[in-house]
Amino acid sequence: MRKFLFRMAQKMRAFFYGRNGFDDLAKLSLILSIIFFLIYGFLPFGILKLIFSLITYGLMGYAYFRILSKKVYKRTQENKKYLGAINMTKTRWKQRKTHKFYRCPKCKTWLRVPKGRGKITITCVKCSTKFDKRT
Ligand SMILES: [Zn+2]
């Protein structure tokens, strides 16, 4: 039995070698698919139920696609982008009373400015583009 488990573990490792594996985005789509599946269970038969089942399968498929993908670099970049967006949202939420966040119209960098200063000209730290905003 132990030998069997050991061999299974080895096979699993060989299977996942060179694959992306379970990352944050895969986790998110799996959690979302479970939520959609639970809602699906409560829906009466009809077009809405069909839509929810399609979303559930779509999200599940996307999670498996990520876990099994061999384009690890590309998947890692996507995951980083997702984590960056999460962090940005957290920061914005924490500083919502003291700061405002604007995106540079040219290079799309997020810029943080203090709140309550009236109309100001913001200069992008990355590309020096100037634009006016009310804070
Ligand atoms: Zn810029």
Question: Which structural class is indicated by helix and strand composition?
Answer: alpha+beta
Low-confidence parts, pLDDT < 50 over ≥5 residues? none
Please bin the fraction of helical residues.
Answer: 55-70%
Biggest pleated sheet: 2 strands, antiparallel
Q: How many distinct domains?
A: 2
N-to-C SSE string, H for helix and E for strand = HHHHEEEE
- Cα shape: extended
Number of strands: 4
The CA-CA distance between the termini, in Å, is: 67 Å
The total of helices stands at: 4
Q: Report the bound ligands by name, code or SMILES.
A: zinc ion
Could you outline the blueprint of secondary structure elements for this entry?
Layout: H1 2-16, H2 24-42, H3 47-68, H4 72-94, E1 99-103, E2 110-114, E3 119-123, E4 130-134
Antiparallel strand pairs: 1-2, 3-4
This protein binds zinc ion.
Zinc ion (ZN) is lined by residues 104, 106-107, 109, 124, 126-127, 129.
Can you tell me about this structure?
The protein is of the alpha+beta class. It contains four helices and four strands. The chain folds into two domains: 93 residues, no CATH class; 38 residues, no CATH class. The strands form two sheets. The chain has a two-stranded antiparallel ribbon with strand order 1-2. Strands 3-4 form a two-stranded antiparallel sheet. Helix 2 runs antiparallel to helix 3. The model has no long low-confidence stretch (mean pLDDT 94). Bound molecules: zinc ion (ZN). Zinc ion binds next to loops. The site of zinc ion has 8 residues, from loops.
